[in-house]
Amino acid sequence: MTIAYQKAYFLLSVADIKQLPADQGIEVAIVGRSNAGKSSVLNRLTQNKRLARVSKTPGRTQHINIFVLDDKRRLADLPGYGYAKAPLSAKQKWQKTIDLYIKQRQSLKGMVVVMDIRHPLTALDLQLLSYCYKQHLSVHILLNKLDKLSKTAVTHTLQKVKASLKNDDSRATVQLFSALKGIGIEELRKQLDKWYG
Ligand SMILES: Nc1nc2c(ncn2[C@@H]2O[C@H](COP(=O)(O)OP(=O)(O)OP(=O)(O)O)[C@@H](O)[C@H]2O)c(=O)[nH]1
Ligand SMILES: [Mg+2]
191: how many CB neighbours lie within 10 A of its CB? Predict the structure, then answer.
C-alpha cells in the first residue's frame, strides 16, 4: 500500500506523554539535536511547508507534536536536545520524557534520528542511540544539510558514520539527506513504508 505522506495533518502537541493519543496503530518518531532540521524533514516528507513549524530559534519545540497520516499511522516530532542555552531543568525533563516515551510507547515502531552532517554522532546522539538499542527500537539516521558540505566531505562523513555504527554493533541504518534541496526523500519513504507496512 502507498502511504499518502502529503495528507499528513497536525493532531496535537503535548508536554507530557500521558496526553498522547491512544497507544494503537503505528507511530514513527523524529528526533535529533535542536536545529538539526527535524521540522524541515517533516515538511519535506509531507510536501507541506507549513506542517511543522520551522523555527529559526533553536530549542523552541519543547513539546511532542503528533501528526496523523491515516487512521492507523502517526508521526511524532519529538523535542530537540542539546540546546546549550536550555536550563538544566529543561534538559532533565527532556531526558525523562524521551526515556519514558521510548520505554512505554507500544505503537512506536522506529526512530528517525536527524543529525546535522557537519556534526554527526555527538555525545547526546550516542546517548539517544543507546536508549533506542536498549529498547530494541529500530533506528534510521538522516545526515541532514548535506548541501552544506562538499561532495568529498559528504562521502567521507558517511563512511566515518557507517564505520562507527558498525563498531556499535547496532542495526541502525544511515542515509544522506537535505531537507533544503529535497535530497534523500525516496530512501526515507522506503524506510518509513517498511515500518508502517
Ligand atoms: N542548508 C540547510 N539548512 C537546513 C536544512 N534543513 C534544515 N535547515 C535549516 O536549519 C534550521 C533548523 O531547522 P528546523 O527544521 O527548525 O530544525 P529542528 O530540528 O526542528 O529544530 P528545533 O525544533 O528547534 O529543535 C532552519 O534554519 C532550517 O532552515 C538543510 O537540509 N539544509
Ligand atoms: Mg522543530
Answer: 17
Distance CA 36, CA 27 (A): 21
Q: What is the pLDDT of residue 62?
A: 75
Q: What is the radius of gyration, based on Cα positions, of the chain?
A: 16
Smallest-distance ligand from the CA of 40: 1
The full set of domain ranges for the chain reads 5-196
Question: Average pLDDT, stretch 61-84?
Answer: 89
* Atom 28 of ligand 1, nearest CA residue: 37
Whole-number Å distance between alpha carbons of 192 and 141: 12
Between the two ends of the chain, the Cα-to-Cα distance in Å is 8
**Residue 117: enclosing H or E segment and its boundaries?**
none
CA atoms within 13 A on the CB side of 50: 0
Residue showing cell 519514558:
100
Q: In this structure, are residues 167 and 180 in contact, taking their beta carbons and an 8 Å threshold? A: no
Report the pocket of ligand 1 as residue ranges, CB < 6 Å: 32, 34-40, 54-56, 58-61, 80, 144-145, 147-148, 178-180
* Element spanning 128, H or E: helix 123-134
What is residue 38's predicted lDDT score, i.e. its pLDDT? 92
Query: What architecture is the 5-196 domain classified under in CATH?
Result: 3-Layer(aba) Sandwich (3.40)
Q: Three-state DSSP class for 34?
A: coil
